[in-house]
Design goal:
This protein has about 120 residues and is mostly beta strands. It contains 1 helix and 8 strands; from the N terminus they run ββαββββββ. The protein has one helix spanning about 35-45; strands at about 15-20, 25-35, 50, 55-60, 70-75, 80-90, 105, 110-115. The chain starts with 14 loop residues before the first strand and ends with a strand.
Length: about 120
């Protein structure tokens, strides 16, 4: 059974996009996509997002070369968030870490770097 893709964008015209490694399932990053980012990702097979801080469209890895090759886009039940399963070509985080989730919050309220 198929149904139309009708994303429910927020008031800023964005949906949340969670990105995981298609091979390992590791959570890589969370970003935002507008309609254009979704269309470009589908057309090119490489992840595109909307940068809220820069207020512009960007291709992941456009300067670093660390692109995300999108294997599959899954849509949640409400169509207000996306799950991108991808093959990372290099670190996913702008800090150079393989994942943006490289720190754990300790019970004392401090962050602890993980070896990932």
């Amino acid at each position: 059974m198929s149904e139309p893709f009708l994303p429910k964008f927020n008031s800023a015209g964005l949906v949340t996009a969670v990105v995981t490694d298609a091979s390992t399932g590791t959570l890589l990053m969370v970003a935002y996509m507008n309609a254009e980012a979704i269309a470009l990702t589908q057309a090119t097979g490489e992840a595109h997002f909307w940068s809220r801080s820069r207020q512009r469209l960007w291709k992941k890895g456009e300067t670093s070369g660390h692109v995300l090759e999108v294997v599959e886009i899954r849509v949640d039940c409400d169509q207000d968030s996306l799950w991108l399963r991808a093959r990372p070509r290099g670190p996913a985080c702008h800090t150079g870490a393989s994942s943006c989730f490289f720190r754990r919050l300790g019970p004392e309220g401090t962050l602890h770097r993980l070896a990932i």
